[in-house]
Here is the input.
Amino acid sequence: MSLRVAQSTFARRMMSVSSMRATTRVNRQRKAPKAVLSVTPTASKHIKLLLDKQKDAVGIRVDVKKRGCSGNAFHLEYANDIKPMEETITTDGGKVIIASKALLQILHSTMDYDESDIAEGFVFENPQAQGTCGCGESFF
Here is the structure.
């Protein structure tokens, strides 16, 4: 297999696997926004692409799970319904639903979408995070 074919196969695999990947950035320089979660236009555009492929989903659910090197990690999944006590944010791309148990950890974060040569996925700038692990996938 040529190097070019291997690279394109790798790129396709990464795009299909990492479309719902989430990492965390710590940014203490900016003031916290008034919204529960701010969604950038880039993230909104990608949310629309994802929801167009998943017809039965009403939105993307954002949750925080106990995992990773640093203890907590953002978890994204398709939401087929909106549960009681969940916060819903309507964007141009669709709905972002914040799980009720993760609300305090997500509060005042910014959801963005980042594409690089190596990986792509949603990135959360969380002013409440004290730090992240080396890869940025989990925070404490």
Helices lie at 3-17, 41-53, 103-106. The chain is about 25% helix and 35% strand. The beta strands are 22-25, 37-39, 59-66, 72-79, 87-90, 95-98, 109-115, 120-125, 138-139.
